[in-house]
């Protein structure tokens, strides 16, 4: 399959945390299994293009803060959108690591316009909020994206409850997805105490 993943921000200090690590582990394993994987992300600082592992095409675009005082929600990556639009033409599925920000929501809108199937993973970042910006974004786009997704993945019961509150309990695309981690390579060596000992 031709798989595209999109995440808000990659930086040398790992400021965006868990969603990037999850995208990294998922994309590396999907590539190992023979799928074609591309990751699109906003970037801040000098990031190695091999960040997401061998076989994964990493597409990084400068992240800009256009709304002061809003944390990650005020980030955008406008130069990403034309490249993503062209790539979506040949994508089989898109995995959006979705948050209420101006990197992910425009990317989601492109998926809607292109008609490409997509799944969303919210990492606990989309919940009930009294913030005016969140309410505006939800009304304009967030809820539409969640409802149009093929799957809306949750990890914790708290996240499931929040998404159910936003979407309604009858929404059928909610599904639990645990965080995959690479398997450790374990070798069975002789115990030091028995090395060289013979009966």
Automatic annotation (TrEMBL):
Keyword line: Glycosyltransferase, Transferase
Keyword Glycosyltransferase listed: yes
Glycosyltransferase subfamily 4-like N-terminal domain mapped to chain residues: 17-172
Domain of life of the organism encoding this protein: Bacteria
UniProt cross-references to Pfam families, sorted A to Z: Glyco_trans_4_4 (PF13579)
InterPro entries, sorted: Glyco_trans_4-like_N
Chain segments annotated as transmembrane: none
A GO molecular function held by the record: glycosyltransferase activity
UniProt name for this protein: Glycosyltransferase subfamily 4-like N-terminal domain-containing protein
Origin species: Paenarthrobacter aurescens (Arthrobacter aurescens)
């Amino acid at each position: 399959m031709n798989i595209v993943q999109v995440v808000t921000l990659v930086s040398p200090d790992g400021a965006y945390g868990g969603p990037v690590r999850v995208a990294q582990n998922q994309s590396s394993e999907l590539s190992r299994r023979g799928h074609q994987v591309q990751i699109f992300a906003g970037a801040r600082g000098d990031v190695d293009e091999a960040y997401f592992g061998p076989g994964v095409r990493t597409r990084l675009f400068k992240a800009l803060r256009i709304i002061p005082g809003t944390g990650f929600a005020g980030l955008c990556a406008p130069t990403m959108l034309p490249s993503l639009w062209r790539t979506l033409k040949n994508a089989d599925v898109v995995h959006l690591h979705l948050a209420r920000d101006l990197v992910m929501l425009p990317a989601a809108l492109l998926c809607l316009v292109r008609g490409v199937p997509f799944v969303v993973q919210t990492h606990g970042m989309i919940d009930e909020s009294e913030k005016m910006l969140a309410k505006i974004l939800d009304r304009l786009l967030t809820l539409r994206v969640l409802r149009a997704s093929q799957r809306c993945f949750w990890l914790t019961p708290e996240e499931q409850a929040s998404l159910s509150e936003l979407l309604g309990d009858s929404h059928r695309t909610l599904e639990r997805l645990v965080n995959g981690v690479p398997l450790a390579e374990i070798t069975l060596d002789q115990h030091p105490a028995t090395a060289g000992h013979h009966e």
